[in-house]
Write a structure and sequence with these properties.
The complex is a heterodimer of chains A (200) and B (518). Chain A is mainly alpha-helical and 200 residues long. Chain A has a domain of 134 residues. The longest helix of chain A has 20 residues. In chain B, a hairpin with a 2-residue loop joins strand 5 and strand 6. In chain B, strands 1, 2, 7, 8, 9, 10 and 20 form a seven-stranded mixed beta sheet that branches. A six-stranded antiparallel beta sheet of chain B has the order 4-13-14-15-12-18, sandwiched between helices. Chain B has a three-stranded mixed beta sheet with strand order 3-17-16, covered by helices on one side. With 518 residues, chain B is of the alpha/beta class. Chain B is globular. Chain B has one domain: FAD/NAD(P)-binding domain. The interface between A and B is large, with 58 and 77 residues. Strand 1 of chain A pairs parallel with strand 3 of chain B, so a sheet runs across the interface.
C-alpha cells in the first residue's frame, strides 16, 4: 500500500503494531524500534546553507515528503556523517567523505545561484531536478576530482538510510523482519506456489 | 549438548606451536586441524565473537557490524565496491555474511593455463582437493542435488536441496524454455536438522538473511562449525586482536606476532609457525606493511575479482525477494561454453536480495533516483534477480598497494587498482545475453543491469615457481620457512565458481601438509 491510499498516522500505527508483535525476534525488535524512535542531535559539520541544500536535495532524490520528514532523513545523514560513514571503501580519486559532501552541496547551491540567482533550496522542483540531472552525470560544473562520484555517494547514502527505516520498509510491503516463527511463518511456501505462475 | 569445557588460555610469554591470523574460512579450518592434532595454537581475530541468536537481527543496517569497514581505496576502470560485498570481521570472518553458496570447482578450473594458455594453473590437482571438499561438505551439512548434474561424480550431499524461491523458479522456467539445464544449487545450510562431529545445527528457516548473519545458526559459517570444534580441541581464539607486525630470528624465521589487543595495548605472541589467513586484502597488506615474503615482487599483484553481473527484473507474481536461500538455483552449462572468444567460463545463479541492499544497488549501480527510484521500490515484492560468477584472469597491473593515507591505527590504507580485461568483458557480455534471454523467456520484464565484480582473490598467489608466486603448493612462503598464507589471496586463478568451500578445503589440506612436515 502506498501513501496515496494510507496516511502517515495509519502507517505508523500499523508499523508499531508489527514491531511490537511476537513475529519479531528480540534483537530485531530492539534494532527496529530503536530506529523508529531515533532522534538526531544537530552537528556542526554542515553550514546552515549546506543543510538547507541537503534538505531540498533529499526531497528530490527521494520524493516522498511525508516519510522523508518523518524519518528525519537529512538529519540522519548528517548524524551518520558525524560518526563517519564507514562503508569500508571509497573511490581513490575522491576526497574524504566530509570534504566531498560539503563540496557537492556547495556546488549545487552555487550552480543554482549562477543559473537563476536563487538558492537551490528556494527553487521550484523542476529547476532543482534539472540541476540534479547535470550533477548525476558529473557534467560541468560538477566535474573534477574534488566532486568525484559525489552525486552517486550522496544518493546511495540517503537511499540506504531511507530504506533501512521500518516505516519505509512497511510502506513498500516488506515484512522480512517478521521471521520469528520459522519456516511456516515467513510466507515462503505461499510465495513459492505463486511464483510458479509466470508472465503477465 | 554437553557443557563445553572452559576455553583454553595460553600465556603470551611462552611460545605456542602456531598462531593463526584470522578466524574466517581460511583460518578456522587450520585452527581446528592443528588443535585436533594436539598442537598449542592461538587464533588472533580482529573482531569479536557473536551469539547468533542474541546478537543477530533480521535487519541489514544493524548487521553492518559483520563487514570489514576500515577504509580501502578503490581505483582503476572498475573500482571494487568493498564493504558489504567482501571481507568480514568477527569470529567467523566473511563466512558470517556469506551467501552460503557451496559450489565446487570442476577439475579443469585448476588447469586454466594448460587448457587455454592464459592465466595460471593451480599447483595441485582436483583429485588432491577432492577428499577435503567431501569433508567440508559433510562438516557444513550442505544441501544439494544428488547426483549433481555437472562435473565428475561426487559423494552425495548430506541433505537434499532447499526450497526454491521466486527468483529460482523464474530462472528454472526461463532455462527450461531455452534448453538451459538448471538445478537446485548446493548451499551450506541444512534442509533438515543436522548433527555432525557432536555439533547440532537446526534446519534453515528460509528467512533469507544469509548475507546479514544467520540468527538461527543453520548456515555453516565458520563460527558454528570449525571454530567450536577447534575450541573443544584446546585452541584459543583471542578476540579483538589486530595484528600489525612480526618479530624475526637471525635466520629470518618468524618468532612472534605483534598485535593490538582489545584495550589498545601492544602485545606479542611468540610462536613456532604463523598462518596468515587475514583475507584477500588484509593478508597482502600486512606483508607489504612489514616488507615480508616479497622478494618476487608478487605480493599485491594479480588481484582478481569474479565478473558477477547481476540482472534484475520484475514479474507479476508476488515473490518476496528476500525470502528463501538466496542462491537457490544454478546452471553450470556455461562452465566451458562453445564457440566463444574468451578463456574459461562461468556459472549462472538465481539471487534473492534484502531491501536495503537492493535499493543501494538501484541507486549506485543503476542510477535510479527521484520518482523512478521510489516507484520502483514500491514494486520490491515483484523483483527477481540472476547473476553470473565467472573466471577472472590475473593481470599484474590489477594490484593492491599501500597508499600514502594512514588509517586510525597509523597504518597505510590499502589501494586496489582493478580493471576488467578483454576476457572478463567478453565473458560478461556472453552472460548478459544469456541471462536476458532466460528472464525474458520466463515472462519477466523491466530488466536492470548492475555490473559488479565479487570476491578478493590472488594478491599472494601460490605456484611452483618462487619468482612467480608468493607461496608454494603447501601455502608456505618461498622465503620464510615458518610462514604460511592461506586464504583467498593465494588463488592462482579465480575458478569459475564462488570461492568459499574451495578455500575451506584448501585450508584443511594446508594443515595436513604442515603436520606431515613436522
Amino acid at each position: 500500500m502506498s501513501l496515496a491510499t494510507e496516511d502517515l498516522s495509519a502507517l505508523e500505527a500499523r508499523t508499531r503494531a508489527l514491531l511490537a508483535s511476537d513475529a519479531l525476534t528480540t534483537p530485531t525488535r530492539a534494532a527496529l524500534q530503536g530506529r523508529m524512535d531515533q532522534r538526531f542531535e544537530p552537528t556542526h559539520l554542515l553550514s546552515p546553507d549546506q543543510r538547507r541544500t541537503l534538505e531540498a536535495a533529499c526531497l528530490r532524490l527521494i520524493p516522498e515528503p511525508d516519510l522523508v520528514r518523518r524519518t528525519a532523513l537529512p538529519a540522519a545523514f548528517e548524524a551518520k556523517l558525524a560518526k563517519g560513514l564507514f562503508r569500508g571503501w571509497r573511490y581513490a580519486e575522491a576526497p574524504d567523505d566530509l570534504t566531498l559532501y560539503r563540496a557537492g552541496l556547495d556546488a549545487l547551491d552555487v550552480a543554482a545561484r549562477a543559473a537563476t540567482g536563487t538558492a537551490f533550496a528556494d527553487l521550484a522542483t523542476e529547476p532543482q531536478d534539472k540541476l540534479l540531472k547535470v550533477a548525476c552525470k558529473g557534467e560541468p560544473p560538477f566535474d573534477g576530482s574534488a566532486l568525484d562520484h559525489w552525486f552517486e555517494e550522496l544518493l546511495t547514502a540517503l537511499t540506504e538510510l531511507y530504506y533501512a527505516h521500518p516505516l519505509v520498509q512497511v510502506s513498500i510491503g516488506y515484512d522480512g523482519m517478521a521471521d520469528a516463527h520459522g519456516p511456516q511463518a515467513v510466507g515462503f511456501q505461499a510465495v513459492s506456489a505463486e511464483a510458479g505462475r509466470l508472465g503477465r | 549438548m554437553a557443557a563445553e569445557p572452559p576455553p583454553r588460555r595460553y600465556s603470551d610469554r611462552e611460545p605456542v606451536d602456531a598462531v593463526v591470523i584470522g578466524a574466517g574460512g581460511g583460518g578456522a579450518p587450520i585452527l581446528m586441524k592443528l588443535a585436533q592434532a594436539g598442537l598449542s595454537v592461538v587464533c588472533l581475530e580482529a573482531g569479536r565473537s557473536w551469539s547468533p541468536k542474541d546478537d543477530f537481527a533480521s535487519d541489514e543496517m544493524e548487521q553492518e557490524k559483520l563487514f570489514w569497514k576500515d577504509e580501502r581505496l578503490s581505483a582503476g576502470e572498475d573500482p571494487i565496491a568493498f564493504g558489504r560485498n567482501n571481507s568480514g570481521i568477527g569470529v567467523g570472518g566473511s563466512t558470517l555474511h556469506w551467501t552460503a553458496y557451496a559450489v565446487r570447482p570442476q577439475p579443469d578450473d585448476l588447469r586454466l593455463r594448460a587448457e587455454f594458455g592464459v592465466g595460471r594453473d593451480w599447483p595441485m590437482t582436483y583429485l588432491e582437493l577432492e577428499p577435503y571438499l567431501d569433508e567440508v561438505e559433510r562438516m557444513l551439512g550442505v544441501s544439494g542435488p544428488s547426483p549433481y548434474p555437472w562435473g565428475p561424480p561426487r559423494s552425495a550431499y548430506p541433505r537434499p536441496p532447499l526450497p526454491l524461491n521466486g527468483a529460482a523458479q523464474i530462472m528454472q522456467a526461463g532455462g527450461a524454455q531455452l534448453g538451459l539445464r538448471t538445478s537446485p544449487a548446493p548451499n551450506a545450510a541444512p534442509s533438515s536438522d543436522y548433527d555432525y562431529a557432536g555439533l547440532h545445527r537446526p534446519a534453515c528457516t528460509s528467512r533469507g538473511f544469509c548475507q546479514a548473519g544467520c540468527s538461527v545458526g543453520a548456515k555453516g559459517s565458520a563460527d558454528v562449525t570449525f571454530i567450536p570444534l577447534a575450541l573443544r580441541a584446546g585452541a584459543e581464539v583471542r578476540e579483538r586482536a589486530f595484528v600489525t607486525g612480526f618479530e624475526r630470528e637471525g635466520d629470518g624465521r618468524l618468532s612472534a606476532v605483534l598485535y593490538t589487543d582489545a584495550e589498545g595495548r601492544e602485545q606479542r605472541q611468540r610462536c613456532g609457525t604463523v598462518f596468515l589467513c587475514a583475507g584477500g586484502v588484509e593478508s597482502a597488506r600486512l606483508l607489504l606493511i612489514n616488507d615480508l615474503a616479497n622478494s618476487s615482487g608478487q605480493v599485491g599483484r594479480n588481484f582478481m575479482a569474479h565478473p558477477a553481473l547481476q540482472i534484475w527484473a520484475e514479474v507479476d507474481a508476488f515473490v518476496k525477494p528476500t525470502r528463501g536461500i538466496p542462491g537457490g538455483l544454478i546452471s553450470e552449462d556455461t562452465h566451458r561454453p562453445e564457440d566463444v572468444s574468451f578463456a574459461g567460463g562461468y556459472l549462472v545463479q538465481s539471487i534473492g536480495v534484502m531491501p536495503m541492499t537492493y535499493a543501494s544497488q538501484m541507486a549506485r549501480g543503476y542510477g535510479l533516483w527521484g520518482e523512478a527510484l521510489t516507484s520502483h521500490m514500491r514494486r520490491f515484492n515483484h523483483v527477481v534477480g540472476i547473476n553470473i560468477c565467472g573466471e577472472c584472469l590475473p593481470h599484474p597491473d590489477n594490484r593492491l598497494t599501500l597508499s600514502d593515507e594512514l588509517d586510525a591505527r597509523g597504518l597505510p590504507k590499502p589501494m586496489i587498482d582493478f580493471s576488467n580485461g578483454d576476457n572478463e568483458k567478453a565473458l560478461t557480455a556472453h552472460g548478459d545475453r544469456l541471462m536476458t534471454a532466460v528472464l525474458e523467456a520466463a515472462g519477466a520484464y523491466a530488466l536492470k543491469r548492475t555490473p559488479r565484480n565479487a570476491h578478493t582473490l590472488g594478491a599472494c598467489r601460490m605456484g611452483s615457481d618462487a619468482d612467480d608466486a608468493v607461496v608454494n603448493a603447501d601455502c608456505r612462503s618461498f622465503e620464510i620457512s615458518n610462514l604460511y598464507v592461506c586464504d583467498n589471496s593465494v588463488y592462482p586463478s579465480a575458478l569459475s565458481v564462488n570461492p568459499c568451500v574451495t578455500q575451506m578445503a584448501l585450508s584443511l589440506r594446508t594443515a595436513d601438509r604442515f603436520l606431515a612436515r613436522r
